[in-house]
Design goal:
Distance between the termini of chain B: 46 Å
Number of strands of chain A: 5
Structural class of chain B: alpha/beta
Low-confidence stretches of chain B: 376-380, 387-393
Largest sheet of chain B: 5 strands, parallel
Helix content of chain B: 40-55%
Radius of gyration of chain B: 31 Å
Number of helices of chain A: 6
Strand content of chain A: 15-25%
Strand content of chain B: 15-25%
Number of domains of chain A: 1
Shape of chain A: globular
Number of helices of chain B: 9
Order of helices and strands of chain B: EHEHEHEHEHHEHEEHEEHEE
CATH topology of chain A: Rossmann fold
Order of helices and strands of chain A: EHEHEHEHEHH
CATH class of chain A: Alpha Beta
Mean pLDDT of chain A: 83
Strand order of the largest sheet of chain A: 2-1-3-4-5
Largest sheet of chain A: 5 strands, parallel
Helix content of chain A: 40-55%
Largest interface: A-B, 26 and 26 residues
Mean pLDDT of chain B: 84
Oligomer: heterodimer
Low-confidence stretches of chain A: 132-137
């Protein structure tokens, strides 16, 4: 019986971004699910129960990612899944500043784009290592 | 809560500062009769307080007052509100001071004695000036807001493809070199090039838009053969249309129908409309570009068999960075500047544009442009079709 690869869901409207990240993660032993927008992201999350979600913030709607994370935190079956925000909207925008503050956004880690792949890998390992411990940590 | 049928803007408010009670009274009476709201003060100190509290549309101040002088009042009022409109009342003997007051920033002066009409006229002019200054300030704020939105959006628009290219290269760097890897490597190089081209197009559009705004784009008013521009643009766009099997068709105007305008701008206009029609089309669809004389003008229409534009988005279509959000439209490259450029050009050319669209069926953009005076011009007067520039949106 093969051990199931942990599933990671990437929610991002940029197909190129999803593809290269997927190949990277797969080469490190993860199974990757794709969603091009928050609606499909939430659907797949409910269906597949990934171990981790990587969420873009600005998709076709400016704050799409933020609302998606809200939904995840409100939903009993999804709220314990660690969510990493991956976004280029950070720091330099004059009128849309996101404090990478868990209390505000409800995420677990923040990765600006372009992504530091080593740091991402390390964080993924840390969160998935002890699923129970990671869940406890992910509580807001 | 129902609104009253005659909802009026509050009457303009005026502050009068003068130590002479008779002057204060007569100003109040005259101005109140004209429907203005007036409050008066007997000295500079209370006057300044009043101005700060009431924020009037106009201030009338006597130059010669004990205590805080009229000139001092002017400078303090302007310090608080640089767009304040101030009228000074002067005695005949203090005309020099009046000039000084103007230099200090007063709008106008009224020598005593003055008639009610004289007062009313000067107040009217002052209020008009106030209205214009407030309008200018509002526009400035709007521009600043737009500039910020522009900066945010553009930076995101550039960061997105850059992040994608960066990640492709970063991951490629780490992967094993095997046969599967080689094929993937080639595929990803193509994708990187595409994203880089997207960034270049964005920058070009940016520059085109500011060139039009800054009026740097060449602007002549000459007879132009729109048919030949259309033919040339369609030829140029064939590479864009072919992969999706989209047919490009032209319905040119009769020979001799020329447009009056700037050839470069016209080309950019046609390029943007056609490339949009191709981009937002369905595979195997059709783009038709027609030019025809209508009511003494020329009408250029570009229609596609694409996704169509839902009615609720149509008012925003020509806004900078606006892109229709609907399934099927996702993932289209382009910053949404194309139609903003089109709108700007149409305005510059003295034309009009309208769009009609049925969701699921397609859209037609119709542009009315001034026609060149009739009669087939000599060959030497015709403008040769300008060289291809990519100002595409």
């Amino acid at each position: 019986m093969s051990s199931a690869r942990p599933k990671i869901l990437i929610v991002d409207d940029d197909a190129d971004f999803r593809e290269s990240l997927a190949v990277f993660l797969e080469s490190h032993g993860y199974a990757v699910l794709h969603a091009p927008d928050s609606e499909q992201g939430l659907l797949r999350a409910r269906l597949e129960r990934p171990a981790l979600i990587l969420m873009d913030l600005m998709m076709s709607e400016r704050t799409e990612g933020c609302f998606a994370i809200q939904q995840i935190r409100r939903s009993p079956e999804l709220q314990n899944i660690p969510v990493f925000v991956v976004s280029s909207l950070y720091d330099k925008a004059p009128d849309f500043r996101i404090p990478p503050d868990r209390a505000w956004l409800g995420h677990d880690e923040f990765f600006p784009k372009p992504v530091d792949l080593e740091r991402l890998l390390e964080a993924i390992r840390r969160y998935l290592a002890g699923a129970g411990a990671a869940q406890a940590e992910a509580q807001p | 809560m129902s609104s009253s049928p005659a909802q009026t803007v509050p009457a303009p408010s005026i502050v009068v500062i003068d130590d002479d009670p008779a002057m204060r009274l007569s100003c109040r009476k005259i101005l109140a009769k004209s429907g203005y709201r007036v409050e008066s003060f007997e000295d500079g100190a209370s006057g300044l307080e009043g101005v700060e509290r009431l924020k009037p549309d106009l201030v009338i101040v006597d130059l010669k007052m004990p205590g805080i002088s009229g000139l001092e009042v002017i400078s303090r009022v302007l310090e608080a509100d640089p767009s304040a409109v101030i009228v000074v009342i002067t005695g005949y003997a203090t005309i020099d001071t009046a000039v000084e007051a103007m230099k200090a920033g007063a709008y106008d002066f009224l020598p005593k004695p003055f008639s009610p009409d004289e007062l009313r006229i000067i107040v009217q002019r002052g209020l008009e000036r106030r209205r214009l200054m407030l309008e200018a300030r509002r526009q400035e704020l709007e521009r600043e807001l737009l500039r910020r939105r522009f900066v945010t959006f553009v930076s995101h628009q550039l960061q997105t493809p850059l992040a994608a290219v960066h990640q492709y290269l970063n991951v490629l760097r780490q992967l094993e070199d095997d046969s599967e890897g080689a094929a993937r490597r080639r595929e990803w190089y193509e994708r990187c090039l595409k994203r880089v081209e997207e960034m270049l197009a964005l920058i070009r559009n940016w520059l085109t838009l500011s060139a039009i705004e800054g009026q740097c784009l060449a602007q002549q008013r000459v007879p132009v053969d729109l048919n030949s521009i259309v033919a040339s643009v369609l030829e140029e766009c064939r590479a864009l249309a072919e992969p999706e099997g989209i047919r490009l068709e032209a319905r040119p105007a009769p020979e001799g129908c020329l447009c009056l305008g700037d050839p470069v701008c016209l080309r950019v206009l046609v390029e943007n409309l056609v490339s949009n029609a191709i981009k937002y089309n369905r595979p195997g669809g059709r783009v038709e570009v027609a030019v025809q004389p209508v009511d003494g003008e020329l009408e250029l229409s570009v229609s596609d068999t694409g996704l169509g534009i839902p009615k609720q988005y149509q008012p925003f279509l020509f806004d900078e960075f606006f892109r229709v959000r609907q399934p099927g439209a996702a993932g289209k490259p382009g910053a949404g500047l194309g139609l903003a450029i089109v709108k700007r050009i149409v305005a510059e050319l003295g034309g009009r544009i309208e769009v009609s669209s049925e969701p699921g069926q397609g859209s037609t953009f119709r542009v009315r442009l001034p026609a060149a005076p009739s009669g087939v011009p000599e060959e030497k007067d015709r403008v040769v079709c300008p060289a291809q520039n990519s100002h595409r949106g």
